[in-house]
């Protein structure tokens, strides 16, 4: 069975690949962006089974389906609410809710193997509209505990979010630096992809906070923000193309 993974977060993609290989399956390729996925489909045979994240670094996965219209069985991976998940079921598309549980992964594959056949056609326009409605659930503010006090930080105030020494920090445009109790992996799907971009495994930047962008070594880019200063704000090489596309939106 030929399996393809489309997932822009490398740790999540690697974890899913390990889980699938642990079950005895071979993953043909792991792709990260809409652009890369479209090119792959144009030069390769379609997979039997496709694991597809909804929100990718340079767009949403529906853009791939609109251009390629694959006949592959699709299992979406998503972090969205039950209303969205019901839509998957009603359209005969299975899903895995992040973080992916081993039992759910095995059940999804077993379902595919039992009913292996071309995927029933679904209304892509209606499905995409449902997804776009869920974008209203992106976080607009976070509550941070500081000693015995609580501070509310809006997403507009955030310049960047970074991890350091196993901690996660929010840095604001008022030069506030706050320890936060969520990981970058947990925070990424809560933030609007229009305003925030995860440039590497350790940092997320806010669009309006970017002051300058410089070419860095090994075909990477270095980000300079208006207030936060760090030598670690480097766009990883595999995300440079997606980052440039994000800037042009």
UniProtKB/TrEMBL annotation:
Domain of life assignment: Bacteria
Keywords: DNA-binding, Phosphoprotein
Residue numbers carrying 4-aspartylphosphate: 53
Residues annotated as domain HTH LytTR-type: 142-249
Domain Response regulatory: 2-113
GO MF term list: DNA binding
Keyword presence, Cell membrane: no
Gene3D superfamilies: 3.40.50.2300, LytTr DNA-binding domain (2.40.50.1020)
SUPFAM superfamilies: CheY-like
InterPro entries in alphabetical order: CheY-like_superfamily, LytR-like, LytTR_DNA-bd_dom, Sig_transdc_resp-reg_receiver
Pfam families: LytTR, Response_reg
UniProt name for this protein: LytTR family DNA-binding domain-containing protein
The species this protein was found in: Sphingobacterium ginsenosidimutans
């Amino acid at each position: 069975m030929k399996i393809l993974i489309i997932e822009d977060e490398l740790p999540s993609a690697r974890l899913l690949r390990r889980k699938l290989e642990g079950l005895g399956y071979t993953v043909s390729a792991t792709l990260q962006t809409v652009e890369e996925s479209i090119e792959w489909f144009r030069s390769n045979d379609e997979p039997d089974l496709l694991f597809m994240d909804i929100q990718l670094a340079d767009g949403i996965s529906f853009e791939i389906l609109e251009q390629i219209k694959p006949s592959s069985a699709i299992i979406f991976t998503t972090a969205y609410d039950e209303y969205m998940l019901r839509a998957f079921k009603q359209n005969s598309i299975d899903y895995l809710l992040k973080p992916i549980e081993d039992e759910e992964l095995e059940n999804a594959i077993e379902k595919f193997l039992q009913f292996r056949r071309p995927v029933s056609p679904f209304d892509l326009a209606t499905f995409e509209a449902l997804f776009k409605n869920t974008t209203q659930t992106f976080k607009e503010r976070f509550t941070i505990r500081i000693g015995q006090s609580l501070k509310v930080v809006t997403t507009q105030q955030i310049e960047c979010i970074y991890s350091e020494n196993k901690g996660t920090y929010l840095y604001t445009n008022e030069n506030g630096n706050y320890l936060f109790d969520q990981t970058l992996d947990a925070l990424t799907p809560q933030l609007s992809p229009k305003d925030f971009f995860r440039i590497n495994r350790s940092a997320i930047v806010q669009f309006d906070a970017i002051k300058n962008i410089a070419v860095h070594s090994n075909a990477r880019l270095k980000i300079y923000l208006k207030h936060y200063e760090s030598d670690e704000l480097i766009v990883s090489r595999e995300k440079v193309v997606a980052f440039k596309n994000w800037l042009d939106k």
